[in-house]
Specification:
Radius of gyration: 16 Å
Number of strands: 0
Structural class: mainly alpha
Oligomer: single chain
């Protein structure tokens, strides 16, 4: 585990990947109840959103809902999780990148790919939202956002329009 991560949190991060269902559920629940102290577990919690066990996914989502901006050192890992094929994992990776704002500017291409190629509409919606949160640094996404704003999905069109306003495109 990384330097500076409290031992209890590091143990729970390990527990999220345990083969035993009960261990994974317990780890996810305890990380949820840890609040902001669970920030070092951000990437592990996003990964756990792809768990086969619904309770692990539910507790992980609940934990992520309570966390604020992810640690800066997690942005590359979150960007990689956009492409894993698990819609809930990609949704939460996009959410956390969006919460990072301009600091996540390196993820613009990956978020744009989610916007244009996501098979799950919620992932495309979240990618558009995240691009807007990144703001002017997401200028490379203007053309795909314009396409999305003109598309048939009303929610995606609204989010893309809002993102374009935030980017200045």
């Amino acid at each position: 585990m990384g330097e500076g991560i409290p031992v209890e949190i590091a143990t729970l991060i390990t527990g999220l990947a345990d083969p035993a269902r009960a261990t994974r559920i317990d780890a996810a629940e305890r990380l949820c109840r840890a609040g902001e102290a669970a920030l070092p577990a951000t990437v592990a919690l996003v990964n756990a959103c792809g768990d086969d066990e619904a309770e692990v996914r539910d507790w992980s989502v609940a934990a992520l809902e309570e966390l604020g901006t992810p640690p800066a050192g997690t942005l590359d890992d979150l960007e990689q999780l956009l492409h894993g094929g698990q819609p809930l994992v990609a949704y939460w990776a996009a959410t956390l990148l969006g919460r990072s704002g301009q600091a996540a500017a390196s993820a613009v291409d990956a978020l744009t790919a989610c916007l244009t190629a996501a098979t799950d509409p919620a992932v495309a919606h979240r990618a558009a939202w995240a691009l807007g949160k990144i703001g002017p640094a997401a200028a490379a996404a203007v053309a795909p956002l314009r396409d999305a704003a003109a598309g048939a999905d009303p929610r995606l069109a609204r989010l893309a329009t809002e993102a374009l306003a935030a980017i200045g495109g």
